[in-house]
Amino acid sequence: MTVLDHRPDRAPVPGWLPGATAPRTDPAPLLPDAEPYRVLGTPAADAADPELLRELYRRLVAGRRYNQQATTLTKQGRLAVYPASTGQEACQVAAALALHAEDWLFPSYRDTLAVVARGVDPLEALTLLRGNAHTGYDPRATRTAPLCTPLGTQVPHAVGLAHAARLSGDDTVALALLGDGGSSEGDFHEGLNFAAVLNAPVVFLVQNNGYAISVPLTRQSAAPTLAHKAVGYGMPGRLVDGNDALAVHAVLTEAVERARTGGGPTLVEALTYRVEAHTNADDATRYRHAEEVAAWQAHDPIRLLEDALRHRGLLDDALVADATERAEQLAARMRAEFHADPELDPMSLFAHVYAEPTQQLREQAAQLAAELAAEAEVHGR
Fold first, then answer.
1. Other CB atoms closer than 10 Å to residue 114's CB: what's the count?
2. Could you report the per-residue pLDDT of 197-239, keeping only the tens digit for each?
3. Active-site residue, 37 included
4. pLDDT for the residue 268
5. What is the pTM of this model?
6. CB within 8 A of 61, min separation 6: which ones?
7. Distance between alpha carbon 301 and the CA centroid of its chain, in Å?
8. Are 312 and 50 in contact (CB under 8 A)?
């Protein structure tokens, strides 16, 4: 199979032209619901799997503690920068849980919690933000792409991998995470267009947290919702309450399985909020009010889940103690690992640039190796 063989009827006459060989696509099934999909606080929550509710709670509590500890490490100078996902933990945890072991996650720089929830060690997940290397984990072993700092460039990467997996006959789905700011980049539009045309097994999760640094969504897009953009590419759009962990998990699980069974891509917009500043270098008070933050804190993902657990009689002292202990163990491991200064190999700069190093790269590597050898000789090492 080649790239052009994925669709036997790849050149039908459009439905709005004379002599059409294919009906015009009905946009109605692709449109998102008028209101964000919710489960918590509705009768549907009473039918949810109790163990799934408990697991989501444990992971959200651990995720909140992870964000707190990473922020503290930044203040201590152990991290160069940290874009917190505080308030967005439901999206991060649900994304990790919706994937199978053979699937791939394509995170942005704000998605380190999703990477950790997928099983990557926190020290490795935060290596880029520590400034030590482009990535601290093996993407192939973890089925997790490197954290993507340029906005949106992970989107076409996810589409390419998903399409390649499909051509190879692999049962693999790619999930690309991005923010509302990333949806304003050309890579986002190109990726979605290719995904729909190729019917690639990929899911796009836009965590609409209200701002692209200091730019509100109203200054980025005039669309009814970002999920409506899916219709223009020919894929379904889903709108979900991004602070409702059960709803996000359900929508993503459905989209992933739809992609896996040949249904093609889905664009999911999760309405959530970035409680903390863009990064530790940002002053969010210059572009938003405390009242706005407080309103979203009242819709906190952990609080929503606790209310649902309490309503079902599932929130007891044992569950709270277990979740708290796991969260503290995670924070303690982060403190211990980040306390030690890393041993860095300067030659690793050249390790993952090209499969076959260029002549220029080889010359640079040789020059650095000579300088390091001379330095070692001077210092008697």
1. 30
2. 999 999 999 999 999 999 999 999 999 999 999 999 999 999 9
3. no
4. 98
5. 0.91
6. 302, 323, 324, 326, 327
7. 17
8. yes
Q: What is the pLDDT of residues 248-303, one digit of tens each?
A: 999 999 999 999 999 999 999 999 999 999 999 999 999 999 999 999 999 999 99
Token output for 283: 């002053």
The one catalytic residue among 260, 287, 288, 326: 287
Please report, as a single letter, which amino acid is at residue 194: F
Under the banding of pLDDT at 50, 70 and 90, the label for residue 7 is low
- 261 to 1, 172, 203, 254: CA distances (angstroms): 18, 10, 13, 11
Give the gyration radius of the chain's Cα atoms.
23
Residue 274 designated active-site:
yes
d(CA 326, CA 335): 14
233 is catalytic: no
Other Cβ atoms less than 10 A from the Cβ of 329: the count is: 12
Other beta carbons less than 10 A from residue 68's beta carbon: 15
Q: Is 175 left (phi over 0), alpha (psi -120 to 50) or beta?
A: beta
**Do residues 251 and 37 touch, judged by C-beta distance below 8 A?**
yes
pLDDT confidence tier of residue 4, bands split at 50, 70 and 90 = very low
Which tokens sit at 22? 């294919």
Amino acid code (one letter) for 311 = H
Beta strands 211-212 and 215-216: pairing type? Answer: antiparallel
